[in-house]
Glucose-methanol-choline oxidoreductase N-terminal domain-containing protein
Amino acid sequence: MSLAYFMGSVNLWTALPPLIITSLFFSIFERSNPEGRVSDTNEIKIEYDFIVIGAGSSGAVVANRLTEVADWKVLLLEAGGDETIVSDIPATAFYLQRTDIDWQYRTVAQSGSCLAFNDNKCNWPRGKILGGSSVLNYMLYVRGNKKDYDDWEALGNTGWSFDNVLPYFIKSEDNRNPYLAANTQYHGTGGYLTVQEPPFSTPLVKAFIQGGQELGYEHLDCNGAQQTGFMKAQGTIRRGSRCSTAKAFLRPVRDRPNLHISMNSLVHKIIIDPITKQATAVRFEKDGQIYTVEARKEIVLSAGAVNSPQLLMLSGVGPADHLQSFDIPVMTDLPVGDNLQDHISLGGMVFTFDKPYSVMDSRYFNIPSILNWTINGVGPLTTLGGVEGLAWVNTKFATESDWPDIQFMFVAGTPTSDFGSIVKANNGVRDDVWDAYYKPVEGRDTWQVIPKLLRPESTGTIRLASADPHTAPLIDPKYFEKEQDLKVLVEGTKIALALGKTQAFQQIGTKFYDAIFPGCEQFTPWTDEYWGCFIRHYSSTIYHASGSCKMGPSSDKTAVVDPTLKVYGIKGLRVIDCSIMPKIVSGNTNAPAIMIGEKGSDLIKADWPLSKRENATASQFKQALPIHVEESNIEKGENFVSS
């Protein structure tokens, strides 16, 4: 085990209780990591066939699948470093935000949402690490609704119907729950990505499912034939540890000679020939040096719904007037950064109850639990950050069969479970709000349903704050700009309240914590106006940024990429990540991001069939030397690197 893997970042370790830091040294046996580690390459060449920018949920898949072709040389660039043992532990999900494996983005100040948070801004965690946000997320494996993808195709995106994308979900999957894996119509085994229910759960999840049945919903596999219903959460975990896309797709192929992975490599721009409009190279920064590497075939941008539009705009692809305001030469005028969508939710509800079941540090992060996880891969530390159940329910606004408009995330705890030490800061809750509303119930046994708006009508934007690639972009989600979004979420909140009143939850002494939320005193409690105020104050992102490089046919003037994911007006450049979604899916976005990586890889292969592939010879693929900046190759201020 490397020291870097064991220790990780200083910020990450200091976020954890001292007990964890001490106890985790028992994991010297590296039980959770038999695959081996991915090494940072010391052989970066002047030229590759493909350059993939971003090693996250989609980019790791693309790098794996492209290097299946032995004579294709692929460079994978990642701004962050490698995973650590802390991120391997599923229960530590909430400890990973605001560390240096997170970009630590914040939205611009909002006027109609995030009102209980510091500066009226929502924190937007994004993974800056191999595996991207699949290392920071709560590991929930959710595909979305069949109609989401059929709707994509109806918008002119040929090849993106549910029947088209389902084989790609199945291709990736190695489902290890026997009763799910047996359903071969919807699930797969033997793929790179391990999916299973966590080995540990509290009795609360049984109450959640029984309560749903009392409300008239079925208990079923919502990744199967029907979505509407209640289920125990399925997660991307393996032997009790997080199965990120780095673990799933990169570690098994780390020794392929045609795959080079360069970590801690911040991409500055994609270089595009202003005459031919051909994407030719990528300029990036590593260890204080600026390097430029050429792409013989294509450049693939898989940096996510925040960084992909940022990099396109830094490269001259985007709204012309916006780029010109930063003196960035315009390569092509496209609506990059528009159509930004996210799943917004009410994250602040609290239900108290009388049993010692909820997720608390004292119960989970102790010597017996850590040893049980380290040696056996079981126990409380295998919980998906406390998320135990999922459900899809219909409000009065849901008009189509089996296309629910609200998703529930059921959590065996609330923001108060850690006495305000971590979740409060993750969400950015102001001190005065916390002290008035949450402090009286700190440390009590609580549970929470987070109602999530599935198909928002409101869309936001990503814009540059500067032409400096080190400067974070401006994120403006414009939550609830369309009033209908708030109305739907209010109805979802009412269903969550009804769930708490079912016999299943009343048997354990459940009560809704009914203090009046600060800032909403002027409204009559429990009216739609009151709940709308509560939602506008505790507006919680579920980290599902999507849509900012919209896919659409050539007739769609709001589209950035075509249905083969090629950027309009630029040759040799594709975007393959959640930013291409024309409309956000009705569920968590990590599994769809992996699917997009799988399908996008096949789209590339289809454009470079065997008969068209150039035989890469030693002379064509530049000779390898130890990595350094070659001063003799500096042209127009650009440093070319060879290895």
Q: What stands out?
A: The domain at 31-83+129-170+242-338+549-643 is CATH 3.50.50.60 (FAD/NAD(P)-binding domain). DSSP finds 20 helices and 27 strands in the chain.
